[in-house]
Amino acid sequence: MFDLAPETKADWWEVEALYDLCFAPGREALSSYRLRDGVAPVAALCLVARDEGRILAGAIRVWPVRIGPARALLVGPIAVHPTRQGEGLGGYLIREALRIGQEAGWDRAMLVGDAPYYQRFGFARLDKVKMPPPTNPERVLGIALTPGAWDGIAGKVMRDA
Ligand SMILES: CC(C)(COP(=O)(O)OP(=O)(O)OC[C@H]1O[C@@H](n2cnc3c(N)ncnc32)[C@H](O)[C@@H]1OP(=O)(O)O)[C@@H](O)C(=O)NCCC(=O)NCCS
Asked: Rounded to whole angstroms, how far apart are CA atoms 84 and 93?
């Protein structure tokens, strides 16, 4: 029903418009955006979902970050158009991005989000990993893409510059 494909330059403004629709105004003031400034996203993991009419229904972008020497995927923003929410598309985008990241050799992924939603994909609180303030530490979540990949990782999340 939905066709997933890597985001291209031609998709960029449509994805921005979807994010503007789905997030509160001022989304780019969030601290997670400071980790993305001037850093190229992980292109293979930035996906757009289009329906049979080629209408954009959802999108996910992913950036690289570092915690000390450890590299991680910072998953998001992810958004599904309000008319397409609750059909499983958000889960499809997240699982596909994680699967492609795992296949590409990434060991771990993290995000800032609602634990009640993301725990179903295996994300759990990272209590030793600090996002730039102001971030609610309860919303800092991670998933190991190789077993134990978050073990012993602690400290500030930094731009992968
Ligand atoms: C969050 C979002 C991407 C989920 O996409 P989706 O396609 O609706 O999600 P799915 O269909 O895979 O899953 C729907 C389920 O997740 C639940 N859910 C959605 N958002 C949730 C949240 N913030 N907290 C808890 N549960 C949530 C729904 O209630 C539904 O539950 P059910 O399976 O028991 O019915 C989408 O709602 C969205 O774009 N929201 C606005 C932007 C946003 O908040 N992005 C995430 C930032 S962290």
From this structure: 13
CATH of the domain at 32: 3.40.630.30
Give residue 47's identity as a one-letter amino acid code.
L
* Dist CA 119 CA 125 (whole Å): 9
Residue whose CB lies within 8 A of the most ligand 1 atoms, among 117, 119, 121, for a mutation test: 117
Which pLDDT value is given to residue 1?
87
- Say how many Å lie between the CA of residue 87 and the centre of ligand 1: 9
Q: Are 144 and 137 in contact (CB under 8 A)?
A: no
- Counted domains in the chain: 1
Q: Please give the residue range of the domain that contains residue 112.
A: 3-159
Pairing mode of beta strands 108-112, 70-80: parallel
| H helices present in the chain, as ranges | 12-22, 31-34, 89-103, 115-118
Enter the pTM of the model: 0.96
Q: How confident is the model at residue 65 (pLDDT cuts 50, 70, 90)?
A: very high
What pLDDT is recorded for position 57? 98
**Segment 20-43 mean pLDDT:** 93
